[in-house]
Amino acid sequence: MTDETTPAASPPGPQSPAKPESPPRSEPVGPGGILPAEHWAQQELVVADDGESALGESVVSSTASITSSVLNYRMLHGRRYHSEIGHASYWGSNDEAQSESLDLNHLAMTLACGQKLYLAPLEEDKVHRALDIGTGTGIWAIDFADEFPKTEVIGTDISPIQPTWVPPLLKFEIEDCTLNWTFAPDSFDYIHMRWLLGSITDWTALFAEAYKACSPGGWVESLEPSCQFQSDHTGIPDDSALGQWGKFFIEGGKKIGQSFTVLEDNIQRKAMEAAGFVDIQEFQFKVPIGPWPKDPQLNELGVLGQAVLESDIEGYILFIANTIGWSRPEIQVYIAHLRREVRFGNHYPYYRAKVVWGRKPDGA
Ligand SMILES: C[S@@+](CC[C@H](N)C(=O)[O-])C[C@H]1O[C@@H](n2cnc3c(N)ncnc32)[C@H](O)[C@@H]1O
């Protein structure tokens, strides 16, 4: 897919009658450039009651009918999250709405990579075992196992949200990738990691574990997005809801000690080099949000990009905005503004993403 993100001659018409620009503001800007919640409450917008689950003010433990500690989820404002076990906590929701969004995101990422599940130069008869770290709903691992029916595939996650009906040589395991990996050294010919931003404290340690588990001559591949929206055409105003989005994650990431600027800081390549991988290559792409690009493939990607975001905006931002002190009603008002800006389509937004892959040297 080309990198060209030219908008269609006329951008999609507004679905909201009001203009999205914000009036001049006088509120103080908080840490990381985050506008106070009152800013969004003061903007003209009718927020629909979407009938979602009851509001709550704090994180409470959901312990009903639970037999295993990995099923001991936390509830935050009516949304389900992975419970903190050992090192692992995760900022995204792990309920149905988020799973649907992750599945749509898989379609978007695959399309962006030219309908390929991987970019490393894999040879089918040499990939005997493959590993997908932080597999989420397992959708990538399922597709990979279908494409490589003779390969034994393992998908790991801290949340057991994967289906049970899967290709015969695929299995899912609960494993915290921030701890020492439990896999035998040199045991995987391909290791895949996607969208782990905000989940990893020490990326160098993560790739060191991947290096150990990778067989000599095998490949590791990492796809990570930026959490910030950009525009080549209008710029994204700092005080727009789109402009504020990334600031929530960067600031919230500081609170939970996990970086959301993996792409910006070139962490994938640096950590792979530090681990000892060679022949490192990368592919960068843009994911438009909305059907504004002229190029038909990018247009399709933009439709998907918008669907991913809109299918569960709350599941992405609720936890992280909560860590910096926002209540659910405040977050809901912000989300309404974001949705309106995305649908209005006048900023031609996109986010960047980067795939990096490298090989463990033969004889290592
Ligand atoms: C944004 S989702 C991406 C899922 C999948 N890789 C994909 O691209 O569809 C991130 C996943 O990483 C998992 N995760 C977070 N921290 C983890 C950890 N320490 N060990 C293993 N998985 C983790 C989360 O539970 C979540 O399923």
UniProtKB/TrEMBL annotation:
Annotated Pfam families: Methyltransf_23
Sequence segments annotated as region (Disordered): 1-35
Statement: the UniProt record of this protein carries the keyword Cell cycle: no
GO molecular function: methyltransferase activity
Keywords, in A-Z order: Methyltransferase, Transferase
Entry's family note: Belongs to the methyltransferase superfamily. LaeA methyltransferase family.
Name of the protein this chain belongs to: Related to TAM domain methyltransferase
Annotated organism of origin: Cephalotrichum gorgonifer
